[in-house]
Amino acid sequence: MTKAWWKESVVYQIYPRSFQDSNGDGIGDIPGIISRLDYLQELGVDVVWLCPVFESPNDDNGYDISHYRRIMKEFGTMADWERLLDGLHSRGMKLIMDLVVNHTSDEHAWFEESRLSKNSPYRDYYIWRDGQNGREPNNWSSFFSGSAWKYDEETGQYFLHLFSGKQPDLNWDNPRVRREVYDMMAWWLDKGIDGFRMDVINLISKVPELPDAHGDGWYNFGGEFFMNGPKAHDYLREMNREVLSRYDIMTVGETPGVTPDEAAKYVSEHRGELNMVFQFELMDIDSGYGKWDVRPWRLRDFKRIMSKWQTGLAGRGWNSLYLNNHDQPRLVSRFGDDGRYRKQSAKMLATLLHTLQGTPYIYQGEELGMTNVRFGSIHEYKDIETLNMYREHLDGGRPEQDIMNGIYSKGRDNARTPMQWDASASGGFSTGQPWISMNPNYTEINAEEARLDEDSIFHYYRKLIRLRKEHTDSIVYGRYEEILEQHEQIYAYTRVVDDGEKLLVALNFYGEPVEFKLPDGVGAEFEGGELLLGNYPAEEGRDWRSFTLRPYEAVVIRGQSN
Ligand code: TEU
Ligand code: CA
């Protein structure tokens, strides 16, 4: 296993709009982030992933970029951004930026030129087609509801948009588009950034014929024709050759619908594409039939998915580890218990995140145990995916309460309520009216409270990050071996270095106590082992081969070396 700084790092994701407002307009901004760098340093993270801060009309909160080399006005200036980069670097942290190049905003100059005429030199920067029999060119649905095509009066053709109608897809089969993207990437890298998170990077290559998707809806998901499309790997290898390989950076691709085998192609070290990808298999574990329909998830499936990725990439590539982000519900509400056992379960899940093989990603507020939100009315929601889904399902005759329940469990605004810094009005996020309402529990759950409480989730994250640095051989590079695979309440595994350190991680995923018994033949060395970290006060005289795990208890045990 080759060693690399990005394998040993912990990443912290910032959603700038909701992190810290500095000027009272209710919108988080770059000077706000700068004012919180000491907090990040105290937490101990190594890398910050900054969600898009580029010029944008904000149809999708910055994922619709109208100028790749300018900073969004609400967020500040390029000089502010440079101060942010310096502030991170001078504290020993790195910065990776969000690269959103599957699509641009329809207000990007390329698209404005492109739509003017069929002969525009920019026409082929995007994907234009004639309609068919008075309908769209094909039946693909958009990720954000409705058709993936929008008709444009100017030239009487449709353009493709896998996301909102204000996010036209770029045509990656056009070499000029690729050149523009690579030049822009080099421009940012030359400013000194340390890498990219690449938005839906496995959607950039579409099957050229754009065939109809299967399905019985009016519009259907055409993923098989654009996920991991025919040229996706060629383009990434080209990007790597032209740009990435010239810098000491890290890259992580967001790749919905990848399997471990497909992922291995993106991240295999000898192929030269990316360092890591975000898999979605775990995120789909509780998906029902329709959008944001939830079905209960089972620990057995959870473990099977995690182990499949741990072993599937072992020795071939590198995993990214995340349990939530700006598109997903809060992990403690989804996989833990955000009521009685909020603290215990948040720490238990954090223990998992930081002791598997891969690079952990913490989403802002996760380290405080921030929870999902339930706004009383749809009018308090801001996310385009949520609002479109609400409208579409209401029109389809679904009961409103049903729709709201879907939004409560899966809606993206769960993750986008402002960061809870303290118990003052607007949680210390802003002196004005936040762009989206606070989660009302900010008076109890906030950073100020957490920093003062030695036993908080925040301090537990600090310990985990430190533990990972003190046990790099085992926690970062050691072999992962699951035990008790069939157990319905416990997730347990060892992290093993041949002729070296052996760790045992045991996690109780439920609010009931449970007996833990090491299977025969596994690790006599854990008898008399040492408790490195746990989320309950230590108890004398526990026998680590057979003991009771308390509700949501997590323990990390080091075997006795001989
Ligand atoms: O997300 C892509 C993606 O897969 C999401 O559509 C996700 O599946 C869905 O929102 C879950 O409800 C990326 C960004 O992370 C997201 O914020 C953007 O809206 C999207 O791409 C378009 O750029
Ligand atoms: Ca602001």
Write a concise keyword list for the protein shown above.
20 strands; 562 residues; five-stranded antiparallel β-sheet; alpha/beta; TIM Barrel; binds calcium ion; 26% helix; 3 domains
What does the secondary structure layout of this molecule look like, with pairings?
Blueprint: E1 11-14, H1 30-34, H2 37-43, E2 47-50, E3 54-55, E4 67-71, H3 78-90, E5 94-99, H4 109-114, E6 128-129, E7 149-152, E8 157-160, H5 175-190, E9 195-198, H6 232-242, E10 250-254, H7 260-267, E11 276-278, H8 299-313, E12 320-321, H9 331-335, H10 342-355, E13 359-363, H11 384-395, H12 400-410, H13 447-452, H14 457-470, H15 472-476, E14 479-483, E15 490-496, E16 502-508, E17 514-517, E18 530-534, E19 546-549, E20 554-558
Parallel strand pairs: 1-2, 1-13, 2-5, 5-9, 9-10, 10-11, 12-13
Antiparallel strand pairs: 3-4, 6-8, 7-8, 14-15, 15-16, 16-20, 17-19, 18-20
Helix pairs in contact: 7-8, 10-14, 11-12
How is this structure best summarized?
The protein is an alpha/beta fold and 562 residues long.
